[in-house]
Structure formats: structure tokens, C-alpha cells
Amino acid sequence: MADLHTETEAIESKDFTLIGVASGADTESQIATFQEHYDITDVEIWIDSQKHYLDIIQPGQPSYPIEIVLDREGIIRYLAAAYHPGQAVAVVKELLGQ
């Protein structure tokens, strides 16, 4: 996530939001420690205590990390059950016309 945060800082538009999602197993204290360690305190982290993220991944696929890019209408434009450097950012740039 720290790499993704660094990559998105270079995007010339503020018409997108980077949001982290933590599983319900993580406490707010653990999340705060993670954010401080990776210097991403400006990224909002949501806690998925009911594990809704499991509804969008394929059975048998790794559950974390997962990357999702939604457009303004909430349509999934990119979904990966792993971190692929640069791919989500490329989709964001394409959606923003950059």
C-alpha cells in the first residue's frame, strides 16, 4: 500500500481518492501503527469488520492484498487479488484522461 500511495501522489488530479481497507481482524491501533510505519497517515483506512471484500474475490484466491479501482458510478474498473505495481495507477490515469 505504501508503494501505491507513492505512485498516486504523482497523479495530477484530485478527482480520485485512495482508500485502504483492513480486515476485521485488524484493530484501529494496529492500523494506526501500520500507517505511521509506512508514512501513509493521510490515507483513510476503512475496517471491513463483516468481511464484505470476500464477496468480490474468486474462491481460492488470496484475500490480501487486493486492489480495486472504482469509477465515479461505483463500477469496478480494475480488480486484482494481488499487488501489481503501476497497474491500478494506470487505470486511474486512464479514467482521468491522463
Question: Can you give a write-up of this model?
Answer:
It is built from three helices and four strands; from the N terminus they run αβαβββα. 28% of the residues lie in helices and 19% in strands. The protein is an alpha+beta fold and 98 residues long. α2 links the parallel β1 and β2.
* Helical content (DSSP H or I, runs of 4+): 25-40%
Over all CA atoms, what is the radius of gyration?
A: 14 Å
Average pLDDT figure: 79
How would a textbook summarize the main sheet? 2 strands, parallel
Distance linking N and C termini: 22 Å
Low-confidence stretches: none
Please tell me what the overall shape is: globular
What are the salient characteristics of this protein?
single chain, 98 residues, two-stranded parallel ribbon, 4 strands
Task: Give the topology.
Elements: H1 2-9, E1 19-23, H2 28-37, E2 44-48, E3 67-70, E4 76-80, H3 87-95
Quickly describe the structure:
The protein is an alpha+beta fold. It has three helices and four strands.
